Amino acid sequence: MKKGEVIGIVGESGSGKSTLMNLILGFYPVDQNQLLINQKPLTADRVATWQKSLGYVSQDVFMMDTTIKENVAFGQELEQIDADLVWECLEKASLAKLVGSFKHGIDAIVGERGGLLSGGQKQRIGIARSLYSGAQVLLFDEATSALDTETEREITESIQRLREDNFTMIMIAHRVTSLKFCDRIIELADGRIKGEHTYESLIQQTI
Ligand SMILES: Nc1ncnc2c1ncn2[C@@H]1O[C@H](COP(=O)(O)OP(=O)(O)OP(=O)(O)O)[C@@H](O)[C@H]1O
Ligand SMILES: [Mg+2]
After folding, report:
1. Which of 31, 37, 125, 196 has the fewest Cβ atoms within 10 Å of its own Cβ atom?
2. Contact 9, 17 (CB under 8 A)
3. For residues 84 and 150, what is the distance between their CA atoms, to the nearest angstrom?
4. Is 19 in contact with 29 (CB distance < 8 Å)?
């Protein structure tokens, strides 16, 4: 992968998509072959530094029943939160307009389990959170279920925006339409790369 590239991962259930992502995230030790980051193997002593540059956005972003800003600056003391940076991250995650429309802005309370926000908006809070923590590589693992068309559209839109900002992204998707903005799409089968596609070629295949 090159910096700024957007890679999609597809394949049947059990083909190894999440396993590959977990390897990239440094959750599993690599015992055979090597994972190269900027041409250097990801060895145990490099994992922590590598992980600092990663942002993992799951389909179920954990939300605290506090303000938007505390959910973006996750784990940071209230008085240490950089409000300008929160807004900047919300902007990049395509949430600034929505949050700007709230009476209390970034001080608005998210509500129990993120009740104020839709599924897609919660995922975008997850993106903003990753950006706030300094992530340069974003990873998405899309759930097979529970992804309505509206949420999918919202996420795909933010990905397009992030792509313009040159973020490197890796995304697992079950719907081909989620992969519209990928430079390359890797197909996995039985834990191996079966093929590489473009969005156009894949959409042709599916039709
Ligand atoms: N920790 C583990 N130990 C052993 N085998 C595992 C482990 N995790 C996953 N597997 C197996 O590895 C294979 C790939 O699983 P993986 O979760 O990567 O699939 P996936 O492509 O993400 O599937 P899905 O689309 O259902 O999320 C499966 O056969 C799974 O049972
Ligand atoms: Mg999976």
Report:
1. 31
2. yes
3. 29
4. no
* DSSP state, residue 109: B
Note the pLDDT of residue 72.
97
Distance separating alpha carbons of residues 161 and 149, to the nearest angstrom: 18
Task: Walk me through the domains of the chain, giving residue ranges and CATH numbers.
Answer: 1-53+136-207 (3.40.50.300), 63-135 (3.40.50.300)
d(CA 100, CA 174): 32
Q: What is the share, in percent, of the chain residues with pLDDT greater than 90? A: 58
With the most atoms of ligand 1 within 8 angstroms of its CB, the residue from 18, 20, 28, 147 to mutate is 18
Residue 24: nearest ligand to its CA? Answer: 1
